[in-house]
Amino acid sequence: DPGNSEDSDIPKGYMDLMPFVNKAGCECLNESDDCGFDNCLIKDSSYLESDCDEQLLITIAFSQPVKLFSMKLQSSDFAQAPKVVKVFINLPRSMSFDDAERSEATQVLDLAEEDYKEDGLVPLRYVKFQNVQSVTLFIKSNQGDEETTKINYLTFIGTPVQATNMNDFRRVRTTSNSQFFFTGVLCWCSPDCMKNTVILNGCCF
């Protein structure tokens, strides 16, 4: 199942990051109306297919920063599987196809048949993918120079960055003090230290 760190093809210490994908922040340019981007986020017979040519521009956003170890791509038709893929991270704005062509990528992949085996993983330069909030894939060509490109499944393998999320704090007001609950820990803080204060594990910072 997606997100299952026990999958045999996932190295120990890493996991399928699909549960951390923020679908509302994802984007795909040149997707077919009939075979859209959402199809490649689930493991079934459906697929993402490009529309007017072989190129696709996919942005995947994560709900929290992650570290990327590798990418997993599956395509039922190898001739239509991606070949040259430019990978970008943390772009400040949406990228056009022209931008993708001329911009320097974080990594350029030249995929081969072995990358599409059932247990195949596409390695990424781990040191360059340490604090990733979004990743953009420019699929420049496919394996057989076919008119369109197909992707049955796309996901990333890695780990979440353990960053404190202030949305996880829940405040409960009392008459003289404020209580904070964070991951099951009860924290107390007097009103005098409430200004510009972060409460973590019972301590004021």
Just give the CATH class of the largest domain: Mainly Beta
What is the terminal separation in angstroms?
A: 40 Å
> Structural class, judged by helices and strands?
mainly beta
- CATH topology of the largest domain, what is it called? Jelly Rolls
- Which percent range describes the beta-strand content? 35-45%
By CATH, the superfamily of the largest domain comes out as PITH domain
Global outline: globular
**Average pLDDT over all residues:** 83
The percentage helix is under 10%
InterPro entries: Galactose-bd-like_sf (IPR008979), PITH_dom (IPR010400), PITH_dom_sf (IPR037047)
Pfam families: PITH (PF06201)
Organism: Takifugu rubripes
Domain PITH: 6-176
Topology overview:
Elements: E1 15-16, E2 27-29, E3 48-49, E4 56-74, E5 84-89, H1 97-102, E6 107-110, E7 122-123, E8 132-139, E9 150-151, E10 153-160, E11 170-173, E12 178-182, E13 185-189, E14 199-200, E15 203-204
Antiparallel strand pairs: 1-10, 2-4, 3-9, 4-7, 4-8, 4-10, 5-6, 5-8, 11-12, 12-13, 14-15
Written account of the structure:
It is a single chain. This protein is an all-beta fold. It folds into two domains: 15-160, Sandwich (Jelly Rolls), CATH 2.60.120.470; 166-204, no CATH class. Helices cover 3% and strands 36% of the residues. The chain has one helix at 97-102; strands spanning 15-16, 27-29, 48-49, 56-74, 84-89, 107-110, 122-123, 132-139, 150-151, 153-160, 170-173, 178-182, 185-189, 199-200, 203-204. Strands 1, 2, 4, 5, 6, 7, 8 and 10 form an eight-stranded antiparallel beta sheet that branches. It starts with 14 loop residues before the first strand and ends with a strand. Mean pLDDT is 83; it is low at 1-5 and 172-205.
